[in-house]
Design brief:
The protein has 151 residues and is of the alpha+beta class. Strands 1, 2, 3, 4, 5, 6, 7 and 8 form an eight-stranded mixed beta sheet that branches.
């Protein structure tokens, strides 16, 4: 897969106008939740695409949805979590011969209380240093490699 940074400086208005399914581009959102110096990641369950890999949770933006609304929906569906979506943190494009995924990362305020896993089989709160030891999905590895998160 090829990694592209073309969406790195996209404005909020431009992000909202990216069509989720235009020209084989699939718009995906990911939640970067932080408590102190630890970040929330979840492991994809067996039977899921990329099973066993860890990720910042999220998913595809449906037609007519804003990225923020899609992220709130995905967190409700995957983690039974009501969360506040904050600032846009950056994007990573991953392309193969059939499509391009544009993954947009957002800061999310994690709610207090238990986590209920629906699309994952484990979760962790890890420091930036600890995240390096997890087998993260490609987009999340690239996002971290760019230094988008301050220690």
């Amino acid at each position: 897969m090829r990694v592209d940074t073309s969406h790195e400086n996209v404005t909020a208005a431009q992000r909202m106008n990216l069509s989720p399914q235009s020209q084989n581009v699939i718009l995906v959102v990911a939640a970067v939740m932080r408590r102190g110096h630890r970040y929330f990641i979840a492991r994809r369950a067996p039977g899921e695409r990329y099973a066993g890999e860890w990720e910042f949770p999220g998913g595809k933006v449906d037609p007519g949805e804003t990225p923020e609304a899609a992220l709130q929906r995905e967190l409700r569906e995957e983690l039974a979590m009501q969360a506040e979506v904050g600032a846009y943190l950056g994007a990573v494009d991953l392309a193969d011969t059939q499509r391009t995924l544009c993954i947009q990362f957002y800061a999310v305020t994690p709610p207090e209380g238990p986590v209920t896993l629906h699309a994952h089989d484990a979760f962790a709160w890890a420091t930036l240093e600890e995240l390096q030891a997890y087998p993260l999905v490609a987009a999340d590895r690239e996002f971290l490699a760019r230094g988008n998160l301050a220690p």
